[in-house]
Amino acid sequence: MNAGTIYAPSTGGGPAGIAVIRVSGPGSGPALQRLTGAAPPPPRRATLVGFHDPDSGEALDRGLVLWFPAPASFTGEDMVELHVHGGRAVMDGILAALGRCPGLRPAEAGDFTRRAFANGKMDLTAAEGLADLIGAETAAQRKQALRQMQGELGRVYDSWRRRLLTALAHMEAAIDFSDEELPDGILERVREDADGLDGEIAAHLRDGRRGERLRDGLHIAIIGPPNAGKSSLLNLLARRDAAIVSAAAGTTRDVIEVHLDLGGYPVVVADTAGLRDGGDAVDREGVRRARARAREAELKLAVFDGETWPERDAETERLVDCDTVVVVNKSDLGLPAGPLEVNGRPALPVSALTGDGIDGLLRALETEMAARCPAGAAPSLTRARHRQALEECRAALSRCRDAGQVELAAEDLRLAVRSLGRITGRVDVDDILDVIFQDFCIGK
Ligand code: GDP
């Protein structure tokens, strides 16, 4: 991390009523003084000031400043927030003036949060939660990111780490002192503790990738025979023309993806080529991709053609399982009365043409998603790196259990502690910091 004082706009680009510029580091107070001609105001109190170019004295804007002396600031350093008018020339003028202050440099992506981490203001999982909160597009994503930013996940990993550290301390005591000075069965107890924790980590890992799903979006594949109305349904779901709707069979040869917010859950809906045999090489490739999508998707939306119902496509029918929501489209053309079903799964009559039954379909999709990402459940891991570190921890615990000598068992326990420490950043993690903070934009 580069030292010095950094500055950057913290609000988005484009003209706006107000824009916020943040400055962090020892040069913050002097920079404020240069731009306003006055000493910093009382801490954390919004104060109206005039901003001037320090060299020419020309007026740049009038706005509010907030002064956060170290350590009670986001980064833990001296910080200043300038609330100026969010116009292009105002921003350019203020940023240029800051750039001419001694020791100040523009911030790089994630610089502010990285300083907050370096100064112990937040652990790595909280920093990741903050990045997710800024990137959250749906309500469920926001909820999960906020919980992680407030330390819910970090607290779980820290408590596990403390338990292992206690076990390690007992084990080291067993190595340092002779048997008779130690209470009986201490090593057995350490092994029991390690076993118990291993079970808890295993349960945490068996969460069906809930947190990662919520972060990245749940994948839904629309499958069905050509002309059943798959593209029309996707268009209706997306309320925009994302897929080609055409009367000619087999127009969707590739996979078209649309990111949607369905009832607060982020989903990636993929429209696939109609399942059918024959056709040219491009058709066959489209069908191959459709089948692959159907296999990989966490949820399938099987669309049957109501025009031919109850005659139905055999391959689509074979793919209907408990991870499938089934619809019979073109209900406007008339469908037999009474409940419909495919493979024992209820089928909803819908019409992509008139919109009939779409609300029911949306409710069915939301129910399936809520079941896969239950709200208010225990904190869930949200990144592959968490999963990897936890798996390393379990591997070390398992070696510890099987180790014949207490010295070797202690070394494995030490490695297990280290794996957990890497998730929250309690141990040296220089190698992963760049990766994590690159997720941020400048000014965060
Ligand atoms: P895909 O090949 O499964 O993606 O099907 P499309 O969405 O391209 O639709 C095929 C044809 O069916 C088009 O002519 C659509 O206008 C028509 N179609 C789609 N949905 C409905 C519906 O609900 N009712 C009727 N009557 N026609 C529909």
Structure description:
The mean pLDDT is 86. It is built from 15 helices and 13 strands. The chain folds into three domains: 5-117, 2-Layer Sandwich (Gyrase A, domain 2); 139-207 and 383-440, tRNA modification GTPase MnmE domain 2 (Four Helix Bundle (Hemerythrin (Met), subunit A)); 214-372, P-loop containing nucleotide triphosphate hydrolases (Rossmann fold), CATH 3.40.50. By secondary structure, it is an alpha/beta fold. It has a seven-stranded mixed beta sheet with strand order 8-9-7-10-11-13-12, with helices on both faces. Strands 3-4-5-2-1-6 form a six-stranded mixed beta sheet. It binds guanosine-5'-diphosphate. Guanosine-5'-diphosphate binds next to helix 9. Guanosine-5'-diphosphate is lined by residues 224, 226-232, 245-247, 251-252, 274, 329-330, 332-333, 351-353.
